[in-house]
Amino acid sequence: MSLRAKIVNKGFAEGSLLISTQPISFFGGVDPSTGILVERNHPLEGVSVSKRILAVPSSKGSTVGSYVIYGLAKKGVAPLGIILGQVDSIITAGAILSGIPTVVANIKKLQSFFKDGDIVVLDAEKGRIMRPLFKE
Amino acid sequence: MKKISREIFRKILDSVQTGRKQYARISSAHLSGISYLNIGDPGLEFLEDLSNSGLRFKVKTTINPGCIDFDSAVECDPGIVEKQRRIVESLRAMGAVVSLTCTPYLFDNPVKRNQRVSWAESSAVLYANSLIGASTNKEGSLTALASAILGYTARTGVHLRTGKNPHILVEYEGELKDELDYGLLGYVMGLKAGSKIPYLRLRNNYAGSLSNYKQLLASFGTSGTAPIVWIEKVTPGFSKVRKPRKKMVVDKHELEDQRKALSEEIPPSPEEKLVFVTGCPHLSLEEAENILTALGSVRGLSVEAWAFVSRRAYLEAIKKGLWTSLSEKGVRVFKDSCVMYCKLKKEKAYVVTNSVKAAYYLRGNFRLKTVLKSLKEVVEEYGVK
Hints:
The complex is a heterodimer. Helix content of chain A is 23%, strand content 26%. Chain A is of the alpha/beta class. Chain A has an eight-stranded mixed beta sheet. In chain A, helix 2 links the parallel strand 4 (52-56) and strand 5 (81-84). In chain A, helix 2 (65-74) packs parallel to helix 3. The longest helix of chain A is centred in the middle third of the chain and has 10 residues, at 65-74. Chain A starts with a strand and ends in a 6-residue tail after the last strand. Chain B is α/β, with parallel strands linked by helices. Chain B folds into three domains: 6-159, Aconitase, domain 3; 168-261, Aconitase, Domain 2, CATH 3.40.1060; 273-384, 2-Layer Sandwich (Aconitase, domain 3). In chain B, the strands form five sheets. A five-stranded parallel beta sheet of chain B has the order 13-12-10-14-15. A four-stranded parallel beta sheet of chain B has the order 8-7-6-9. Chain B has a three-stranded parallel beta sheet with strand order 3-2-4. In chain B, strand 2, helix 2 and strand 3 form a beta-alpha-beta unit. Chain B is globular. The mean pLDDT of chain B is 95. The A-B interface holds A 8-9, 27, 32, 62-64, 66-68, 70-71, 73-74, 89, 92-93, 96-99 and B 1-2, 4, 8, 11-12, 15-16, 33, 38-43, 45-46, 49, 140-142.
């Protein structure tokens, strides 16, 4: 059982799913040294995107967000993979600069398949999201 | 993490295209995202890594303004000055012309009709397409950077055969008495046109100078998304382009509404000082001369006056003695930075400006109180006899 997704940046990632129902502003909204969301009253305020498979409807705010994602990746605290709700140039550029596997998928559908914290495999080579074949 | 490579930049260009990936060769690039106040530490870090990666620009590449004037850096926080300098040095090492201007078309990166280029900076894009007849999309900071490195850009938008065709006829019948009216018209057109390319017909063609159209296009670029405005009798090739059937009329009152929306009421004796800011986009020599002419009848202004120009225009105008004359009238001239100047950010002031674009960004990004006035109005109100 897998969910189809459109490939934005190729690659392969496995990790714990983090679902944001609201757009994220990487510039200003995310601590650039830790990956923790710092935007006031954001549903994920205080939660870190580091080493998660981040599902997010889109970005918002400054285009400098692309550079912030790059900076997170350099420090090893970027998301392992990104699932976008729609095509988004800020996150896409950041993901390409950082080599983060990224796809576009229907977030509502994603939520009916998986819940926050589930271990998922993001296959951005074939364009699908699924559960790992083998559980550790 | 993978090393920064040409491959990454090709992927950046591919990411803005759906379907088959196609490219267009370009003869120059112009980069945005240069100011430290804009890109901050994340941008600085990336540009330094990029510069250290060994990649170099393949075509002539100019850069947007930063946030300091290198000749009067003492006005700004030393930390900011140092980081702005590092950004510029990274780009210089990659082969950029250190133009630090939003008006590359004036001196630093002249573009000719029918040339394809890859420019970020919306006001320069609108100018190049609408007044010169060149072709560039409104590139983002990263796609412009990618095409500077690769020598080509994505073949989309204006690079396609029908990509420049206008979609909507815009008619304006009201009066356009000064550069501010032209700016407001451009701003209203941008708000109303959505992503459609407008074909503008001015019923009463008043003082249609390049300076006025420069203001119209800069403010259109602020509120609108299209990369070109066809201006009847002005844009190269306007007679051959097919006129759109769909029509939209802009009314004089709509200009007045936007002027109010971007202007504060100044109280009779305000606590804050007033600063007249001009040169957004950077002044052309014609505009600098207009300021001097307008100030001809007065000794100076009772408010501070700051003018922003490119270093190249500054040097050109020295030959004409322009700046000496302007500084005698009390106008301070800044180079290398735009109105998003480090010191202005910290000022508690009313910013009076004749640029709609400046008002929009100074309100939005610097949280300053702005007031729109034309050059003529400024001299009438604040001129000292």
